[in-house]
Amino acid sequence: MGYGTVSRLFHWTTVLIVLVMIPVGLTMIQDLPRSVQDPLFILHKGLGSVFLTLILARIVWRLRHPPPPLPESIPAAQRRVAALSHALLYLLLLTMAVSGYVRVTTGGFPIELLNALGIPPLFSKHESVSLAAKSVHLTTVIVLIAVIALHVGAALHHALVRRDGVLARMWPPVAPR
Q1: What burial letters (b/e) apply to 71-105, b meaning 16+ CB within 10 Å?
Q2: What is the pLDDT at residue 126?
Q3: Which of 17, 42, 99, 113 could form a disulfide with 137 if both were Cys (CB 3.0 to 4.6 A apart)?
Q4: How far apart are the first and last CA of the chain?
Q5: Residues 6+ positions from 93 with CB-CB distance below 8 Å
Q6: What is the DSSP secondary-structure string of 141-175?
Q7: Is there a cis peptide before residue 67, judged by omega within 30 degrees of 0?
Q8: Which residue windows are transmembrane per the record (predicted)?
Q9: How far apart are CA 26 and CA 22, in angstroms?
Q10: Taking a C-beta distance cutoff of 8 angstroms, is the pair 159, 167 a contact?
Q11: At residue 1, does pLDDT exceed 90?
């Protein structure tokens, strides 16, 4: 038994956005000409705003639609590690989105997408809060990359070594009928 189409679309949309956000985020902080950096910052902030909304909706969906059970062949310890890693992924993704938003708004920087939509910042400029949020954001991305690597490695292990159908619970992105 696999995840439904909505859960799969939330998952794969998250994957696509993260696969853009991390390289863009790591690139934009390099010593680059402003003509390169500025569009990267605008893209990162705009996608981050979309991502914050997506991850909040995804968490609400997940709370209302529990995941299908893992196959009985999965040992109890692996079930606990899977549950822990999924919870950690949600926590890290939410932390990334919130800390990024707080960093930008308390740093006094615009979020062009939200400005265009007429959505004012929730926080005023506050340099020490901005620096703390920046630190949280940078630390969290390192942990997030490690947990994503663990998650992908586990999925590949189940698909290529164990061949136990765990990956098929989430792939393809649209649930088969």
Answers
A1: eeebeeeeeeebeeeeebbeebbbbbbbbbbbbbb
A2: 98
A3: 99
A4: 12
A5: 14, 18, 51, 55, 144
A6: HHHHHHHHHHHHHHHHIIIIII--STGGGT-SSS-
A7: no
A8: 9-29, 41-61, 81-102, 138-161
A9: 6
A10: yes
A11: no
- The residue written with tokens 């400029």 in the block is 125
Q: Two tokens at 6?
A: 């909505």
Q: Give 69-81 pLDDT, tens digit per residue.
A: 999 999 999 999 9
DSSP state of 65: S
Residues 37, 44: Cα–Cα separation, whole Å: 10
CATH no. for 5-169: 1.20.950
Going by the DSSP 8-state scheme, the letter that residue 124 receives in this structure is -
Distance, in Å, from the CA atom of 24 to the CA atom of 124, rounded to the nearest integer, reads 26
Backbone angles phi, psi at 74, to 5 degrees: -80, 120
Instruction: State the CB neighbour count (10 A cutoff) for residue 16.
Output: 11
For 140, residues 6+ apart whose C-beta sits below 8 A from its C-beta are 92, 95, 96, 99
| pLDDT tens-digit map of 56-65 | 999 999 999 9
- Return the percentage of the chain with pLDDT > 70, whole number: 100
The pTM of the full predicted model, rounded to 2 decimals, is 0.94
Give the Cα separation of 122 and 164 in Å (integer).
46
Closest CA to 103 of 80, 79, 128: 128
